[in-house]
Amino acid sequence: MNNIRQIKLFDDKFIVETKDSSLKLNCKIENGKCYVDISKMNLINATKVAIFCSTYCFINNFQYNLCWIVADSEIQRAISILRLKNIEQIVKEKPQRKRTALAS
Q1: For position 98, what pLDDT does the model report?
Q2: What are phi and psi of 70, to 5 degrees?
Q3: How many CB atoms lie within 10 A of CB 97?
Q4: The model's pTM
Q5: Residues of the chain under the 50 pLDDT cut
Q6: Hey, which end of the chain has fewer CB within 10 Å, N or C?
């Protein structure tokens, strides 16, 4: 992901614009929190997007806390180190694969 040029917030989407493209992140507002799934992003991109979008919302007095859904505890830890006041992180639960026992 190139340098972020602009962040826009619409009703149910964050739009993160870079030099070459734009990224649309769906939001879901529930129980006074805005949930955003960035679990498909790697550590660097997820941290960058969470920091910039959270800062954008803080500056613009966004009425909900952001809850970032991340892929693993390493990303969760990287974002939480910054101690931003308007965010939480949740590690996305991976679906359990069904195991079958082979009878001998």
Answers
A1: 60
A2: -115, 165
A3: 5
A4: 0.75
A5: none
A6: C
